[in-house]
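hey m, so remember when u said the tokens were messed up on ur end? i reran from scratch. heres the input so u can diff it against urs
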Amino acid sequence: MTFNRWRPHPWHGLDPGEAPPERVRAYIEMTPFDLVKYEVDKATGYLRVDRPQRTSSQPPTLYGFIPQTYCDKRVAALAPNAERGDGDPLDICVLSERPIDRAEILLDARVLGGLQMIDGGEADDKIIAVLESDSIWGVAHDIGDLPGALIERLQHYFETYKLVHGEPSKVSIDEVYGREHAAKVVAASLEDYGEAFG
């Protein structure tokens, strides 16, 4: 067991889990109860207010990122319509049957698939996973095991969460993919992180 005398940075100081790319650790920034977009401040590692949500939609799942991942050229290469990666850690949406109403938590999750999202030409994939040992969602092993309505909610949330009145959307979801491709995206983001940060 290791001990950190000081709080580690959630992006750089925590590990990505014991068995990536299939099983990963997630740092949760937002819950389905949040009406404000929270995001880890890259300099300090503390959670900060990014912006109030412009629409009435809320994230349908827990939402955060996988530590020690980075979306750069390898992640972009997996998204045909992307010009580059978004330069952020890889986002993850985690299903939990029991309501979890607090952020800044760590959890272990099993990867099921993802959304290939392009935001202003940048690859901004959203990995979809299930809380490890979840009593209800734990039976899911691939994206096809989830209800279509849930995937539609996730797509709608990400297609609208940056909308600005009177301006066209810069976001598109080009593909919903399964576990096999999601594992490639996670692996690519780990490699991108290793190259960028050592």
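this time it looks ok to me. The longest helix spans residues 179-197. if urs says something different then somethings off w ur setup not the seq
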